[in-house]
Amino acid sequence: MFPEYDVIVVGAGHAGCEAAVAAANLGSKVLLATMNMQTIAQMSCNPAMGGVAKGQIVREVDALGGYSGIVTDETMVQFRMLNRSKGPAMWSPRAQSDRMLFARKWRQMLEAHPNIDFWQDMVNGLVVKDGRVCGVRTGMGLEIPCKAVVLTNGTFLNGIIHIGEKQLGGGRAGESAARGITEQLVSLGFESGRMKTGTPPRLDGRSLDYSRMEVQPGDEQPGRFSYTETTPLTAQMPCHITYTNDKVHEILRTGFDQSPMFTGRIQGLGPRYCPSIEDKIDRFADKDRHQLFVEPEGRDTCEIYVNGFSSSLPEDVQFKALRLIPGFENARMFRPGYAIEYDYFPPTQLKLTLETHLVKNLFFAGQINGTTGYEEAACQGLMAGINAHLNIAEQEPFILKRSEAYIGVLIDDLINKGTQEPYRMFTSRAEYRILLRQDNADLRLTPLAYQMGMMNMEARMERVRAKEEAAKAIERFLRDTSADPAELNGFLSELDSSPLRQKTKLHGILLRPNVSMAGLSRAVPALHHFLAGFDQESIELAEINLKYEGYIDKEREMADKLNRLEEVKLPENFDYQPLVSLSKEAREKLSRIRPRTIGQAGRISGVTPADVSVLLVHIGR
After folding, report:
1. Residue 236 phi/psi, 5° resolution?
2. What angle do CA 15, 69, 103 make, to 5 degrees?
3. Does an H or E element contain 387, and which?
4. SS3 of 557, please?
5. Distance CA 371, CA 529 (A)
6. Residues facing residue 7 across a β-bridge
7. CA-wise closest residue to 15 among 75, 74, 67, 73
């Protein structure tokens, strides 16, 4: 009935969709197996993509040929560039999505791919022979052969939904949990754990009084995620902001004795940076209010997502508390918030390719690895799909360094440090964030995807080359062109910047605080005329390159220095136990994580600089 597939992807959430596309775009024949074809790429939680550091990840996924950026652009209802008041390393794109259109667009793009087949069924086991995965077993009793498997099970592995004292088996509201895979993996020697996440109640937008809330509009000139020519956003929808208060908190506290989080019924740790409303009230008892974002679910629905009000309290407590929030006095609830507890597998059991150490050609991606967030899941799916294809083609693995991408930071953190709580990406996790900006993800990563042979990258590469050449031309013009005091002193005076006494290169003026390329071009007609021939993206890139040149060079130099240790390979089957000069902790962790390089070894928690020196001496360096 089934041919032997190159890659079977289990689960069709954000990680599964990107994994299927990545492997298929490299030429693998892929089967995407999901329990429900109607929920492919469903946004299980908030109807948004991007945000601080997450927006950079979406742009990186797009630069590598993934689809998340394109789908977001084609289905968003609002776009905002966050942190514009800070330096460009912190700028982070975020889009409010139309939930139903997002899933529909993803499915259309997947179905249009000739290398992707679909099967609706629960996968409840793997076929493993001689330490290698060679198929999956389904709830219908079918065995489907393949050369590699990517598991992207999300919150479905033995999932339990908690609402007050009620416990329901399920991986998402109204959907069954997945059984069998955890048990089999544990029997094969894998270590598993439990985590939890939550979601807020959904409300009827017709019952809300928006006049009592603050309006949060999108950017006047909305940007986009994809580096391709996606459809420009028009007719943006506003979000709104409101706040909890002491009365809301009092009502919520009445349900604490029934809260699964406080009574100990939930064993798994929840996300530190996206806590439930009851957790916020408990941990931040000194705060008399908490901010809530009132987000539309789409253009053709009145359903509203209350961002910041995740809860697993009884539904009647949630309802009473909600009605005390300004603007929510007459709120009608579509469904209550809930917490969900699920199995995950500590990611220290994986290689940097996301392949497991214990079973060859078996890859994990997404929440199964202990992460939270659509964007974190999508980039892992992309990398697992790429490496599944490369593995079976017996080609070199594709691994991104920490200095090359936020994706590299995320995977490196997971494999070398592990996580006991849902991992979320922040700009502060990246030591090279001036290099890893959202505006240059295409320059950093598209050439790598092109060299790898990813489909449809030729036009993207031409665009990257054109952008790079345009930015260099602008930089040359500013370095070579001077302006005289009469032309610029009025402009500088408006900025409280010291006047010129002689002709000065435009480059030097741009380096002054508060001087922007846009302002300078308004003051200097020759610059304005020159820039008219370039797109805004290239102009912005040139401005950042010039204004932050010293910082960029310093960070690149630091990265190059540390990357030299990434070139010093460690044998895959290296025996660390006889090296008594290593600490006991180092021997234990090096044996378990099996780093590929000296650089990776040095980032493992518990491996000291002295241990790294011992390794260097031992391998003759």
Report:
1. -70, 150
2. 60
3. helix 374-392
4. helix
5. 48
6. 30, 148
7. 67
pLDDT above 90 (res 1): no
Note the pLDDT of residue 621. Answer: 56
Q: Which residue has the tokens 């800070």?
A: 86
Supply the pLDDT for residue 209: 98
Q: What value does the mean pLDDT take over residues 200-209?
A: 98
- At 263 the pLDDT is 76
Please, where are the H alpha helices in 128-196? 181-187
Structure tokens belonging to residue 104: 């529909």
| Composition of the chain by helix, strand, coil, percent to 5 | 40, 20, 40
Scanning the structure block, which residue is given the tokens 């002689």?
502
- Say if residues 160 and 340 touch (Cβ distance below 8 Å): yes
CA 616 to CA 613: how far, in whole Å?
Answer: 5
Helix pair 458-480, 536-547: axis angle to 10 deg: 50
pLDDT band at 49 (very low <50, low <70, confident <90, very high): very high
CA dihedral 215, 220, 221, 226 (to 10 degrees): 0
Q: CA–CA separation, 390 vs 354, rounded Å?
A: 12
Q: What is the pLDDT of residues 95-125, one digit of tens each?
A: 999 999 999 999 999 999 999 999 999 999 9
Count how many residues are written for the chain.
Answer: 621
User: Cα(117)–Cα(3) distance, rounded to whole angstroms?
Assistant: 11
Q: Which two tokens stand for residue 210?
A: 């928006």
Convert 443-502 into a string of H (helix), E (strand) and C (coil). Answer: HHHHHHHHHHCCCCCHHHHHHHHHHHHHHHHHHHHHHHCEECHHHHHHHHHHCCCCCCCC
Residues in a beta bridge with 136: 126, 144
**End-to-end CA separation in angstroms for the chain:** 55
* CA-CA-CA-CA torsion sign (41, 47, 50, 51): negative
Asked if pLDDT for residue 394 goes beyond 60, the answer is: yes
Domains of the chain: 202-336 (2.40.30.260), 458-558 (1.10.10.1800), 568-618 (1.10.150.570)
Three-state DSSP state, 432 = coil
CA dihedral 608, 612, 617, 620 (to 10 degrees): 170
Say if CB 160 and CB 142 are below 8 A apart.
Answer: no
Sequence-distant (≥ 6) Cβ neighbours of residue 453 within 8 angstroms:
26, 27
Residue written as tokens 């320059």? Answer: 443
Q: Which amino acid is at 45?
A: C
Residue 416 scores a pLDDT above 60: yes
pTM: predicted TM-score of the whole model, two decimal places:
0.94
CA 471 to CA 541: how far, in whole Å?
6
CA 106 – CA 75 distance, rounded (Å): 10
Q: What is the 3-state secondary structure (H, E, C) of 365-386?
A: CCHHHCECCHHHHHHHHHHHHH
Distance from C-alpha of 433 to C-alpha of 431, rounded to nearest angstrom: 6
User: Rounded to an integer, what distance in angstroms lies between the CA atom of residue 273 and that of residue 308?
Assistant: 11
Q: How far apart are CA 535 and CA 300, in angstroms?
A: 34
Cα separation, 391 vs 181, whole angstroms: 23
Which residue is associated with the tokens 């005289």?
484
What torsion do the CA atoms of 352, 357, 363, 367 make, to the nearest 10 degrees? -80
